[in-house]
Write a structure and sequence with these properties.
Layout (H helix, E strand, L loop, with lengths): L1 H22 L25 H14 L8 E3 L15 H6 L2 E3 L8 H16 L5 E5 L5 H12 L7 E5 L26 H10 L7 E5 L2 H11 L5 E6 L4 H11 L3 E9 L5 H13 L7 E2 L5 E4 L10 H10 L8
Parallel strand pairs: 3-4, 3-6, 4-5, 6-7
Antiparallel strand pairs: 1-2, 7-9, 8-9
Helix pairs in contact: 1-2, 2-4, 2-5, 4-5, 7-8, 8-9
Length: about 325
Protein backbone atom coordinates (compact mmCIF):
# COMPACT_ATOMS: atom_id res chain seq x y z
CA UNK A 1 0.00 0.00 0.00
CA UNK A 2 2.91 2.34 0.73
CA UNK A 3 4.16 1.96 -2.85
CA UNK A 4 0.69 2.72 -4.22
CA UNK A 5 0.48 5.82 -2.06
CA UNK A 6 3.91 6.96 -3.29
CA UNK A 7 2.87 6.27 -6.87
CA UNK A 8 -0.23 8.40 -6.62
CA UNK A 9 1.74 11.24 -5.14
CA UNK A 10 4.69 11.26 -7.53
CA UNK A 11 3.34 10.06 -10.88
CA UNK A 12 2.97 13.67 -12.16
CA UNK A 13 6.61 14.34 -11.30
CA UNK A 14 7.81 11.15 -12.97
CA UNK A 15 5.86 11.98 -16.12
CA UNK A 16 7.30 15.51 -16.13
CA UNK A 17 10.80 14.16 -15.57
CA UNK A 18 10.60 11.61 -18.40
CA UNK A 19 9.16 14.29 -20.68
CA UNK A 20 12.07 16.51 -19.77
CA UNK A 21 14.54 13.74 -20.55
CA UNK A 22 13.06 13.40 -24.00
CA UNK A 23 12.95 17.12 -24.75
CA UNK A 24 15.81 18.86 -22.96
CA UNK A 25 18.48 16.50 -21.70
CA UNK A 26 19.92 15.63 -25.10
CA UNK A 27 20.81 19.20 -26.00
CA UNK A 28 24.35 19.72 -27.16
CA UNK A 29 26.54 22.45 -25.65
CA UNK A 30 25.59 25.77 -27.21
CA UNK A 31 22.01 24.75 -27.98
CA UNK A 32 19.20 26.53 -26.20
CA UNK A 33 16.67 24.75 -24.05
CA UNK A 34 14.41 25.26 -21.07
CA UNK A 35 15.05 23.51 -17.79
CA UNK A 36 12.13 21.26 -16.93
CA UNK A 37 9.98 22.34 -14.02
CA UNK A 38 8.38 19.67 -11.85
CA UNK A 39 4.94 20.53 -10.52
CA UNK A 40 5.61 18.28 -7.51
CA UNK A 41 9.13 17.81 -6.08
CA UNK A 42 10.27 14.29 -6.87
CA UNK A 43 11.48 12.81 -3.58
CA UNK A 44 10.20 9.24 -3.23
CA UNK A 45 10.96 7.06 -0.24
CA UNK A 46 14.58 5.93 0.06
CA UNK A 47 15.25 2.90 -2.13
CA UNK A 48 11.58 2.65 -3.12
CA UNK A 49 10.60 1.22 -6.48
CA UNK A 50 9.92 4.77 -7.66
CA UNK A 51 13.37 6.03 -6.71
CA UNK A 52 14.94 3.13 -8.59
CA UNK A 53 12.78 3.94 -11.61
CA UNK A 54 13.90 7.55 -11.39
CA UNK A 55 17.60 6.65 -11.24
CA UNK A 56 17.33 4.11 -14.05
CA UNK A 57 15.70 6.76 -16.22
CA UNK A 58 18.33 9.37 -15.40
CA UNK A 59 21.12 6.88 -16.15
CA UNK A 60 19.67 6.01 -19.55
CA UNK A 61 19.08 9.68 -20.29
CA UNK A 62 22.54 11.03 -19.49
CA UNK A 63 24.17 8.23 -21.50
CA UNK A 64 21.94 8.83 -24.53
CA UNK A 65 20.47 5.33 -24.33
CA UNK A 66 16.86 6.51 -24.07
CA UNK A 67 16.95 7.98 -27.56
CA UNK A 68 19.53 5.50 -28.92
CA UNK A 69 21.68 8.43 -29.98
CA UNK A 70 24.53 8.06 -32.50
CA UNK A 71 28.17 8.25 -31.47
CA UNK A 72 31.68 9.04 -32.57
CA UNK A 73 34.50 6.56 -32.35
CA UNK A 74 36.25 7.07 -29.02
CA UNK A 75 39.48 9.09 -29.00
CA UNK A 76 38.91 10.69 -32.42
CA UNK A 77 38.35 14.01 -30.73
CA UNK A 78 36.53 15.89 -33.48
CA UNK A 79 32.87 16.68 -34.01
CA UNK A 80 31.75 15.70 -37.49
CA UNK A 81 28.18 14.45 -37.84
CA UNK A 82 28.96 12.96 -41.23
CA UNK A 83 31.20 10.46 -39.41
CA UNK A 84 28.76 9.59 -36.62
CA UNK A 85 28.06 5.90 -36.09
CA UNK A 86 24.64 4.33 -35.40
CA UNK A 87 23.72 3.61 -31.81
CA UNK A 88 25.39 0.49 -30.45
CA UNK A 89 23.80 -0.68 -27.18
CA UNK A 90 26.76 -2.83 -26.16
CA UNK A 91 29.31 -0.04 -26.68
CA UNK A 92 27.13 2.51 -24.89
CA UNK A 93 26.66 0.18 -21.93
CA UNK A 94 30.45 -0.28 -21.73
CA UNK A 95 31.20 3.40 -22.23
CA UNK A 96 33.20 2.47 -25.32
CA UNK A 97 31.88 5.21 -27.61
CA UNK A 98 31.43 8.97 -27.41
CA UNK A 99 27.75 9.92 -27.73
CA UNK A 100 26.79 12.74 -30.04
CA UNK A 101 23.69 13.43 -27.92
CA UNK A 102 24.13 12.55 -24.28
CA UNK A 103 25.98 14.20 -21.42
CA UNK A 104 28.33 11.45 -20.34
CA UNK A 105 30.57 9.07 -22.28
CA UNK A 106 31.01 6.85 -19.22
CA UNK A 107 28.33 4.32 -20.18
CA UNK A 108 25.57 2.58 -18.26
CA UNK A 109 27.77 0.22 -16.22
CA UNK A 110 29.68 3.15 -14.79
CA UNK A 111 26.46 4.99 -13.90
CA UNK A 112 25.28 1.90 -12.05
CA UNK A 113 28.65 1.74 -10.30
CA UNK A 114 28.29 5.35 -9.09
CA UNK A 115 24.87 4.48 -7.66
CA UNK A 116 26.16 1.31 -6.00
CA UNK A 117 29.18 3.00 -4.41
CA UNK A 118 27.17 5.97 -3.18
CA UNK A 119 24.58 3.62 -1.73
CA UNK A 120 27.36 1.69 0.01
CA UNK A 121 28.87 4.74 1.68
CA UNK A 122 25.41 5.95 2.70
CA UNK A 123 24.42 2.61 4.24
CA UNK A 124 27.74 2.29 6.05
CA UNK A 125 27.88 5.93 7.16
CA UNK A 126 31.19 6.64 5.42
CA UNK A 127 31.58 10.41 5.72
CA UNK A 128 32.15 12.65 2.75
CA UNK A 129 30.97 14.05 -0.55
CA UNK A 130 31.19 12.99 -4.19
CA UNK A 131 33.84 14.64 -6.37
CA UNK A 132 34.51 14.26 -10.07
CA UNK A 133 37.78 15.43 -11.61
CA UNK A 134 37.22 15.77 -15.35
CA UNK A 135 33.49 16.13 -15.99
CA UNK A 136 33.03 16.63 -19.77
CA UNK A 137 29.31 17.52 -20.16
CA UNK A 138 28.66 16.75 -16.50
CA UNK A 139 26.52 13.62 -16.85
CA UNK A 140 28.26 11.50 -14.22
CA UNK A 141 28.01 14.30 -11.66
CA UNK A 142 24.39 14.94 -12.64
CA UNK A 143 23.73 11.28 -11.94
CA UNK A 144 25.54 11.41 -8.58
CA UNK A 145 23.42 14.41 -7.60
CA UNK A 146 20.33 12.45 -8.70
CA UNK A 147 21.33 9.61 -6.37
CA UNK A 148 21.52 12.03 -3.46
CA UNK A 149 18.14 13.47 -4.46
CA UNK A 150 16.54 10.03 -4.71
CA UNK A 151 17.97 9.03 -1.32
CA UNK A 152 16.93 12.38 0.23
CA UNK A 153 20.51 13.20 1.13
CA UNK A 154 20.91 16.90 1.83
CA UNK A 155 24.20 17.00 3.78
CA UNK A 156 26.57 15.79 1.05
CA UNK A 157 27.81 17.74 -1.93
CA UNK A 158 28.78 17.02 -5.52
CA UNK A 159 32.04 18.74 -6.50
CA UNK A 160 32.89 19.30 -10.17
CA UNK A 161 36.55 20.00 -10.94
CA UNK A 162 37.48 20.74 -14.55
CA UNK A 163 39.18 23.28 -16.77
CA UNK A 164 35.91 23.56 -18.73
CA UNK A 165 38.22 24.22 -21.67
CA UNK A 166 39.54 20.79 -22.58
CA UNK A 167 42.68 18.97 -21.45
CA UNK A 168 46.07 20.60 -20.93
CA UNK A 169 49.07 20.37 -23.17
CA UNK A 170 51.34 17.64 -21.82
CA UNK A 171 53.95 19.17 -19.53
CA UNK A 172 56.08 16.04 -18.98
CA UNK A 173 57.42 13.20 -21.11
CA UNK A 174 55.12 10.81 -19.23
CA UNK A 175 52.22 11.83 -21.50
CA UNK A 176 51.74 11.97 -25.23
CA UNK A 177 50.41 15.39 -26.19
CA UNK A 178 47.22 14.23 -27.87
CA UNK A 179 44.45 15.15 -25.45
CA UNK A 180 44.83 18.89 -25.84
CA UNK A 181 44.10 18.46 -29.55
CA UNK A 182 40.69 16.89 -28.99
CA UNK A 183 38.05 19.58 -29.39
CA UNK A 184 35.26 17.18 -28.47
CA UNK A 185 36.33 16.97 -24.82
CA UNK A 186 36.17 20.75 -24.35
CA UNK A 187 32.86 21.78 -22.77
CA UNK A 188 32.22 25.12 -21.08
CA UNK A 189 31.00 25.51 -17.52
CA UNK A 190 27.81 27.27 -18.62
CA UNK A 191 26.87 24.25 -20.71
CA UNK A 192 27.44 21.90 -17.77
CA UNK A 193 25.37 24.13 -15.48
CA UNK A 194 22.58 24.07 -18.04
CA UNK A 195 22.61 20.28 -17.99
CA UNK A 196 22.16 20.29 -14.22
CA UNK A 197 19.30 22.74 -14.63
CA UNK A 198 17.65 20.48 -17.22
CA UNK A 199 17.35 17.79 -14.54
CA UNK A 200 16.32 20.27 -11.80
CA UNK A 201 19.48 19.34 -9.90
CA UNK A 202 21.42 22.60 -9.80
CA UNK A 203 21.45 23.81 -6.21
CA UNK A 204 23.69 24.59 -3.25
CA UNK A 205 24.78 20.93 -3.08
CA UNK A 206 26.73 21.38 -6.33
CA UNK A 207 30.12 23.15 -6.28
CA UNK A 208 32.49 24.19 -9.06
CA UNK A 209 36.27 24.39 -9.30
CA UNK A 210 37.60 25.71 -12.61
CA UNK A 211 41.11 25.28 -13.97
CA UNK A 212 43.65 22.59 -14.77
CA UNK A 213 44.05 20.25 -11.82
CA UNK A 214 47.54 21.41 -10.81
CA UNK A 215 45.99 24.81 -10.08
CA UNK A 216 42.31 24.17 -9.29
CA UNK A 217 42.84 21.37 -6.77
CA UNK A 218 45.19 23.28 -4.44
CA UNK A 219 42.74 26.19 -4.68
CA UNK A 220 39.87 23.86 -3.76
CA UNK A 221 41.78 22.65 -0.70
CA UNK A 222 42.36 26.24 0.38
CA UNK A 223 38.70 27.15 -0.05
CA UNK A 224 37.48 23.97 1.65
CA UNK A 225 40.12 23.02 4.24
CA UNK A 226 37.75 20.52 5.87
CA UNK A 227 36.85 18.78 2.61
CA UNK A 228 36.02 15.10 3.09
CA UNK A 229 35.15 12.73 0.24
CA UNK A 230 33.40 9.38 0.24
CA UNK A 231 33.59 8.77 -3.51
CA UNK A 232 36.23 10.29 -5.79
CA UNK A 233 35.79 9.84 -9.53
CA UNK A 234 38.96 10.42 -11.56
CA UNK A 235 38.74 11.10 -15.29
CA UNK A 236 41.94 12.93 -16.10
CA UNK A 237 43.18 10.70 -18.95
CA UNK A 238 46.85 11.64 -18.35
CA UNK A 239 49.70 10.65 -16.02
CA UNK A 240 50.18 14.18 -14.74
CA UNK A 241 46.46 14.80 -14.22
CA UNK A 242 46.15 11.54 -12.30
CA UNK A 243 49.07 12.48 -10.05
CA UNK A 244 47.53 15.92 -9.49
CA UNK A 245 44.31 14.30 -8.30
CA UNK A 246 46.02 11.74 -6.10
CA UNK A 247 48.37 14.13 -4.32
CA UNK A 248 45.69 16.75 -3.77
CA UNK A 249 42.70 14.59 -2.83
CA UNK A 250 43.90 11.22 -1.52
CA UNK A 251 44.03 12.44 2.07
CA UNK A 252 40.45 13.77 1.83
CA UNK A 253 39.07 10.34 0.93
CA UNK A 254 37.56 8.57 3.93
CA UNK A 255 38.63 5.07 4.88
CA UNK A 256 35.86 2.88 3.52
CA UNK A 257 35.37 5.26 0.61
CA UNK A 258 36.04 4.63 -3.08
CA UNK A 259 38.25 5.95 -5.84
CA UNK A 260 36.87 5.40 -9.36
CA UNK A 261 39.47 5.35 -12.14
CA UNK A 262 37.57 6.01 -15.33
CA UNK A 263 40.74 5.75 -17.44
CA UNK A 264 42.26 2.53 -16.15
CA UNK A 265 42.52 1.30 -19.75
CA UNK A 266 44.99 4.12 -20.48
CA UNK A 267 48.56 3.03 -19.75
CA UNK A 268 49.67 6.44 -18.44
CA UNK A 269 46.91 6.35 -15.82
CA UNK A 270 47.82 2.83 -14.76
CA UNK A 271 51.43 3.95 -14.40
CA UNK A 272 50.47 6.89 -12.19
CA UNK A 273 48.26 4.79 -9.92
CA UNK A 274 50.90 2.08 -9.60
CA UNK A 275 53.71 4.53 -8.82
CA UNK A 276 51.59 6.42 -6.29
CA UNK A 277 50.78 3.32 -4.27
CA UNK A 278 54.31 1.93 -4.57
CA UNK A 279 55.97 5.09 -3.26
CA UNK A 280 53.69 4.82 -0.24
CA UNK A 281 54.49 1.14 0.37
CA UNK A 282 50.89 0.07 -0.20
CA UNK A 283 49.23 -2.53 -2.36
CA UNK A 284 45.73 -2.12 -3.74
CA UNK A 285 42.91 -4.31 -4.98
CA UNK A 286 41.59 -3.22 -8.35
CA UNK A 287 37.93 -4.00 -9.08
CA UNK A 288 36.81 -3.80 -12.69
CA UNK A 289 33.63 -1.97 -13.63
CA UNK A 290 33.72 -2.66 -17.36
CA UNK A 291 36.37 -3.11 -20.03
CA UNK A 292 37.73 0.40 -19.44
CA UNK A 293 37.11 1.62 -15.88
CA UNK A 294 37.93 0.25 -12.42
CA UNK A 295 37.71 1.30 -8.80
CA UNK A 296 39.67 0.90 -5.58
CA UNK A 297 38.33 0.87 -2.03
CA UNK A 298 40.38 2.81 0.50
CA UNK A 299 40.78 0.25 3.26
CA UNK A 300 43.29 2.17 5.39
CA UNK A 301 45.45 5.27 5.51
CA UNK A 302 49.02 4.92 4.28
CA UNK A 303 51.50 3.70 6.87
CA UNK A 304 53.89 6.43 5.72
CA UNK A 305 53.30 10.18 5.24
CA UNK A 306 52.10 11.38 1.86
CA UNK A 307 55.24 12.02 -0.18
CA UNK A 308 54.61 15.69 -0.83
CA UNK A 309 58.27 16.34 -1.66
CA UNK A 310 57.97 14.02 -4.66
CA UNK A 311 55.00 16.06 -5.88
CA UNK A 312 56.82 19.36 -5.32
CA UNK A 313 59.77 18.08 -7.34
CA UNK A 314 57.40 16.77 -10.01
CA UNK A 315 55.73 20.16 -10.35
CA UNK A 316 59.10 21.90 -10.51
CA UNK A 317 60.01 19.71 -13.48
CA UNK A 318 56.84 20.51 -15.44
CA UNK A 319 56.43 23.11 -18.12
CA UNK A 320 54.13 25.99 -17.25
CA UNK A 321 50.58 25.50 -18.49
CA UNK A 322 47.87 28.15 -18.83
CA UNK A 323 44.26 28.30 -17.67
CA UNK A 324 45.09 28.80 -14.00
CA UNK A 325 41.67 30.35 -13.35
Amino acid sequence: MRLLADAGRYVPSIIAFVAGCLTTAMLLPGQQGTALSLTTPFAPSKNSALSELYLATVAKSVTGILLETPSYTAFTGKEDLTKAQPFDAEKRTEGADWPVYGITMAGLKRMNNIRDLLDDVLVNNIPGDFAECGVWRGGSSVFARAVFAARRVTDRKVHLIDSFAGLPTATTAKDIDMWSQMDYVSVGQDDVRRHFEAYNLLDEQVTWSKGFFRYSLPDLRQRMPDLKLAVLRMDGDMYESTMDILFNLWDTLSVGGYMIIDDWAIEACQQAIGEFYKMHNTEFELIRIDSIASYIKKVAEFSVPLNRQWYIDFNDSRAVEGNKD
